[in-house]
Each structure stands twice: as C-alpha cells, then as structure tokens.
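Incident review: delayed structure delivery

Summary: a single-chain prediction request sat in the queue longer than the usual turnaround. Root cause was a stuck worker, restarted by the on-call engineer. No data loss occurred. The affected request and its eventual output are reproduced below so the record is complete for anyone auditing the incident later.

Affected input:
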Amino acid sequence: MLETVKNPSLLCRVAISIDNLIERIFAVESDPEFELCIPDSILHRTELICEYIKTEKGYDFEVEGFLMLLYLDFIKNCIKSYNPRKVFKQLTEEYYQDQYLTAVNCGVSEIIPIVKYSKTNLVISMAEEDVRKGQLILDELYDLYGYRISFSKLLENLWIGFIEDYKTGENKRAYYSIVKILKECIG
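Output delivered after worker restart:
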C-alpha cells in the first residue's frame, strides 16, 4: 500500500542532506597542481642541499619541502616588509632565457631553439589555502604593474633565484637560512 507524504519538501531536504553528507565523506579533494620547469643544475643543487640537511640535521627533507619553505618564507616576508617593486623584479627575473637561431633555406625561414641547458618538468601540488596567499600577492602586483605572473612562475623564480644566489655567492648563508626556516617550522 502506498502512503502519501504529507510534507514532500521535508523529505527532499532530508534526501539532499544525506546526499551531501555522502558526497563529503567520499569526495576526494585534490590540491591544485602546478607544472614547474627547472634547469637540471638547479634541481641537482637543491637535491644536494636536501641530502646534506638530512645527513647533518637528521630531518626528513626533500625537494618539495625545500620549495615549500622558500614559498612560506616569501609569504611571511611579503606580510612583514612588503616591497612591491622588489617582489615584482624578483618574480619577473629571467634566469635562463631560451635562445633561438633563425635558419633560412631556399627562402624558407625556420626558427631552431638552441639548447644551452637541460630542464626538468616537475608537477607539484599545494594546499588551496597556501596557493590563495600567493595568488593575492600576484593579483596585487597585477593591479600595480598590469603584468600577470603565473603561480608556477612565482614558484620557479623563488627556487631558481635562491639557488642562483647561493651558487654565485650572493647568498653565502643560504644553507643556514634554509636550516633556520626549517627549525622555525618544525619547532
């Protein structure tokens, strides 16, 4: 025997609530992913620093943790002593520019890339709330300078700039600054 439902809206609300609960329980929220293109020399130097920190300090420290430390330190510095011109310059610096050769054969031009260094493409993920912090800074830089900087470019330039400064001696205390930041985060 079929029974009529006296309050269908209540039944619908209950069904929707149950459906939403099941969706939240089984939903797999994935963090945003970003593809970075990093010169191999930068990646290898970073791996060496991470390995040294593991050995010397006993921390389980990988490249992803290294990049996250640089990023969180960048966010902290932008909040404490924000200098938009300096940040804009830092994030738009071109460290490894691709070069091209134009070859002409029988009146047909062909552009050929000149490979001076090898690169590795890495895909990293980051929590949405951490990405949002950096995106707010990028949005502000766009408002100020009218130039859109991608989040991937932000991460690449933080990483490459740090290691380049380390390799060229401009940041002689780079290793110690990473260890200091790591200690602050851990403890």
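Verification: Helices lie at 8-26, 40-57, 63-80, 84-92, 128-145, 151-167, 174-186.
Action items: add queue-age alerting; document worker restart procedure.
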